[in-house]
Specification:
This protein starts with a helix and ends in a 9-residue tail after the last helix. Helices cover 41% and strands 16% of the residues. The protein is built from nine helices and eight strands.
Length: 232
């Protein structure tokens, strides 16, 4: 079937990019971005061995997660409003990928403390300085770093980015490289190892792997073109 065939092609492309970059085989996690797609489609991916899924919208994730087998892991990869943090933490995401401000990080830490959990998160960085994008600036994350790392109920696993769109996948390489470099600088500052870099999507994930991605977020290349409500 289409989804299984696409998954095999993407896995092969990831493996080839790992090899080109001299990285160990299996060092990159494929996150299947299932937003807007029905559970039936997600199950096709599941039956081909896919276990890691990403959703952009909390409400949509809350509807899909109980309908899928319990051995799936889920990432929340879209913007998270502070008034929805409690629901997101109660839902049990393996990773909240788009913590895009100090204020949001503080809210997540506070509510995680109230719930008696530690929130695993990534910090979103606006590496291209796009006005329309959320995220820390590279300079701002340094300014806030000591405060961020002192928050008691967060496990900051690394960084994520969404580069400016480009037709040529190579056009995203400077952004991916900038995120990798920024993570290295933050590791030197300490005290966190920051093992994860979430970067790369359907059209540019091989470039992201070559530049050090540990998580690639691939949706339409697996499931096909999305049909949003206003396109119906």
């Amino acid at each position: 079937m289409y989804i299984q065939d696409q998954l095999q092609e993407i896995r092969a492309a990831i493996a080839a990019a790992e090899q080109r970059a001299g990285r160990p085989a299996g060092s990159v996690q494929l996150l299947a971005v299932s937003k807007t797609f029905p559970v039936q489609d997600i199950m096709h991916a599941y039956h081909d061995g896919q276990r890691d899924f990403g959703e952009n919208r909390l409400q949509e994730a809350m509807e899909k997660m109980p309908a899928m087998p319990a051995d799936c892991t889920w990432h929340l990869i879209g913007p998270l409003q502070r008034n929805k943090v409690r629901k997101a933490l109660e839902q049990g995401f393996a990773l909240i990928e788009a913590v895009d401000s100090l204020r949001l990080a503080e809210t997540v830490s506070r509510i995680a403390g109230e719930l008696g959990v530690t929130a695993r998160i990534l910090l979103e960085v606006n590496v291209d300085g796009e006005q329309s994008k959320h995220g820390f600036t590279p300079e701002g994350i340094f300014t806030d770093w000591d405060t961020l790392t002192a928050l008691p109920h967060l496990d900051i696993r690394g960084l994520m980015c969404i580069p400016a769109p480009t037709e040529d996948p190579e056009g995203a390489r400077p952004a991916f490289r900038a995120l990798r470099t920024l993570a290295g600088r933050l590791r030197e500052r300490g005290p966190l190892p920051l093992p994860e870099l979430s970067m790369g999507m359907s059209h540019d994930f091989p470039v992201a792997v070559e530049e050090g991605a540990t998580i690639v977020r691939v949706g339409s290349a697996i499931f096909g073109r999305r049909a949003y409500p206003n396109q119906q």
